[in-house]
Amino acid sequence: MSDDFLDTDENTALEDADDQNQFNDLLGYIDKKYTSAKSSRYNDETRWLQSYRNYRGIYGPDVKFTDAEKSRVFIKVTKTKVLAAYSQLCDVLFSQNRFPIGIEPTTLPEGVVDSAHIDPKEPADIGDEPEMPDLPLVYGFPGDGNDLNAGETAETLMAKLGPLENKLKNIENLQEGPGETQSAITFQPAMVAAKKMEKKIRDQLEESAATKHLRFAAFESVLFGTGIMKGPFAFNKEYPNWNDEGDYEPVVKTIPKVEYTSIWNFYPDPDAINMEDAMYVIERHRMTRTQLRALRKRPFFRKSAIDRAIEYGESYTREWWEDDIESDSYGMDSDAGDPNTGIERFEVVEFWGTVDTEMALEAGIQLPRELKKLEEIQINCWVCNDEILRLVINPFTPKRIPYCSAPYEINPYSFFGIGLAENMDDTQTLMNGFMRLAVDNAVLSGNLLIEVDESNLVPGQDLTVYPGKIFRRQGGAPGQAIFGTKFPNVSSENMQLFDKARVLADESTGLPSYSYGQTGVQGTGRTASGISMLMGAATSSIRTVIKNIDDYLLRPMGEALYAFNMQFDFDPSIKGDLEVRARGTESFMKNEVRSQRLITFLQIASNPVLAPFAKFPYIMREIGRTMDLDVDKITNNPEEAMRQAVLMQQMQQQMQPEGPPAGANPNDPTGGGGGNIGVGTAPGPQERGFPTGGGANAGQRRPAPQQGVANAPQPSQGVAATGQPTRLQ
User: Fold this and answer.
1) pLDDT tens by residue, 543-552
2) How far apart are CA 687 and CA 689, in angstroms?
3) Residue 232: cis peptide before it, omega within 30 degrees of 0
């Protein structure tokens, strides 16, 4: 991929200009949208902040304690459930230790041959020394672990077949459709393109550490209700490199990158309920001076504007919620100075959205002729200290805003979803209240309340009570001077209410305690079948969450990467009528059940009549996945599988005796007399081809069998049991 793959048109980017007044309308428009998004998000920020406090186990400044309440205990049940749900999501999403996106051909690919086959040797043409055909590789690229050995040659499948039907012409022994014989090798050109595209996307995701960013987004989705991912966008990545003299010369490569965006810094269109409905989004960045200078190296950033923004000075302003989420004690030090001082950061606003075409022209951006006819266009604009750092036309085709938003629980009337912490906010408050009451009561009931009659004591004494304390009585004073009163213990009643609130938390979140190892299961749940039923019911809520992540994050992100490569990558072998598949929900089927089903199907497909209809490479890879294995490392592609079969056949031939064992019955149909096993019939003593101790007929080929009897190859012929030739390439 070229480093300048985003340079679609030099006229679509803003060049440096001296007249800053031309940007006033655009700056005012972006500031208006930013202010509107901020104000509309206030209620959501309040919900998120409360969820964060419950997760951290910290009381907010709105919680007031009376003088009688001594306990400040906070029971972090919210944190336990959030981490449990997050762990379950990660177990499902990253069961294969990779980003859960796959590429498959469409059901009926357009312009792509569905399947083709090569039958290198017809059964009647098999001789004593058949030759190994030059078979194409199914998929791959240099460095993927499927490289050929030294001295071997092979054409790639795409070079030989190609995606178009007309490329099937003039290919020897190549026919359209699936092979119907055991010696035929069937190919699927659309699947080849899908696998190459999937490998391309997988490499791009690994280069940008996408799995790490997805974990961050999944965590915020559980805690706050919404997880945000951004991308793909052009990014210059530096790869470490040292030359022959030992000097450090890093290699810079422009790659498509995806990353996590915090929900706190994401400001969508207030009138939108999803990304497809959003007219604009704004991302707020907090950058250091070094980070701001680094923007000069990225495409289409205006160096002079960046210098002016830095010269103006740090201007980051804290939002009202930032002190709360960055502090461990709310309301304790809120008056300790101005929260906006001492912050050596720059506030950079990134705008993606629609503006009037006339406004873009006034800002100085040059538009192609076909875009000037439009009433509005999509732009990307970066602003810092009233300086436009970057202004370009949205480079993606079709036009899209490069963000994905996944709700934990869908709110049909809001852009932001509902998180697990919010669902149990009330029950968390109840649990805290009952536990504080229980603790305070336990402290009172565990100590005596001291009652003193001071008229019976000598005045001026210290009334503090401790072991061995001596009080001086008034001489002749009647009655007892000091009394001890026992306070009743009702903490058990408070704990019962606490347990009830905890059960309500299980019901409100759909995440019962037993699903993540907590005790408390009674009755039928103590049996193995009962536990299985309970766990199956407990996963229903998580299944819905994973489905939301599939539909609103993984699939849109995969489609964006697919469109990115279709637009900017010039490798034709990865292109085709393909479909993005989000694999989060697929992982929910129990691996044991899926593995058993696949093995059963494999046994059925082993029937020679049914074998041509089964996709054995796919079955083997799926069995490996169900066992949590790296299928790319443990399975062979078809060419490697053929070579492996050849080697195994040769090893079997070397281990076979050259003649029948002494005393064996040559008429034994089991093969004890040296006949062929499994196919056809063994020759008798009077038949041609029967080994008679080195006679004239020894080693000769037996004649063709009668009609209806299969012609089995001899071991000396070097043909595998699958019908494939055995000679190595």
Assistant:
1) 888 889 989 9
2) 6
3) yes
The two structure tokens encoding residue 698: 């020894």
- Phi and psi for 30 in degrees, rounded to 5? -65, -40
Sign of the alpha-carbon dihedral angle for 102, 106, 107, 113: negative
Backbone φ and ψ for 88, nearest 5 degrees, come out as -65, -40
* Encoded tokens for 327: 């502090």
Q: How far apart are CA 577 and CA 699, in angstroms?
A: 54
Kind and range of the H or E run holding 254: strand 251-261
Q: Are 365 and 13 in contact (CB under 8 A)?
A: yes
Residue 437's nearest CA partner among 78, 76, 66, 62 is: 66
CA dist 186 and 114 (Å) reads 10
Q: What is the DSSP letter of 693?
A: S
CB 51, CB 424: distance < 8 Å:
no
How distant, in Å, are the alpha carbons of 122, 688, 705 from that of 702? 19, 6, 8
Count CB-CB contacts under 10 A for residue 725.
22
Q: Where are the beta strands (DSSP E) in 144-198?
A: 174-176, 185-187
**pLDDT, tens digit (0-9, with 9 covering 90-100), for 19-71:** 567 788 999 999 999 999 999 999 999 999 999 999 999 998 888 887 777 88
Computed on alpha carbons and rounded to an integer, the radius of gyration of the chain in Å comes to: 37
Count the neighbouring beta carbons within 10 Å of the beta carbon of residue 87: 12
For residues 16 and 397, the answer to whether their CB atoms sit within 8 Å is no
| d(C-alpha 487, C-alpha 45), whole Å | 44
Q: For residue 517, what are the contacts with CB-CB under 8 A and spacing of at least 6?
A: none
What's the full length of the chain, in residues? 729
Closest to 144 (Cα-Cα) out of 192, 203, 86: 203
**Contact call for residues 73 and 162 (beta carbons, < 8 A):** no
pTM reported for the whole predicted model: 0.69
Which pLDDT value is given to residue 30?
95
